[in-house]
Amino acid sequence: MTPRPFEIRIICPPGDADRITAALAQTFTTGPTRTYPTRDRHKVRLYITATPR
Predict the structure, then answer these.
(1) What global pTM score does this model have?
(2) What is the model's pLDDT at position 36?
(3) pLDDT average per 10 residues of sequence, the chain (53 residues)
(4) N or C: which end of the chain has fewer CB within 10 A?
(5) 11 φ, ψ to 5°?
(6) CA distances from 25 to 33, 48, 49, 51, 53 (A)
(7) How far is CA 35 from CA 3, 12, 22, 29, in A?
(8) What gap in Å lies between CA 33 and CA 16, rounded to an integer?
(9) How do the residues of the chain divide into helix, strand and coil, expressed in percent and rounded to 5?
(10) Running DSSP on this structure, what letter comes out for residue 23?
(11) Cβ burial, residue 45 (10 Å; 0-12/13-18/19+)
């Protein structure tokens, strides 16, 4: 059976985004990361499509 992709959403400080994205890429096959500010503009929301390896 082929693994199905799923969506990961993470809210984090902007300075942690690259580290989190890299860690997920080591664990999953990931697509492009979509980054948006939170409503309060102090954090970012990361949306990543991932597929188990």
Answers:
(1) 0.88
(2) 98
(3) 95 98 97 97 98 93
(4) N
(5) -110, 125
(6) 10, 10, 10, 10, 10
(7) 25, 11, 14, 18
(8) 14
(9) 25, 50, 25
(10) H
(11) middle
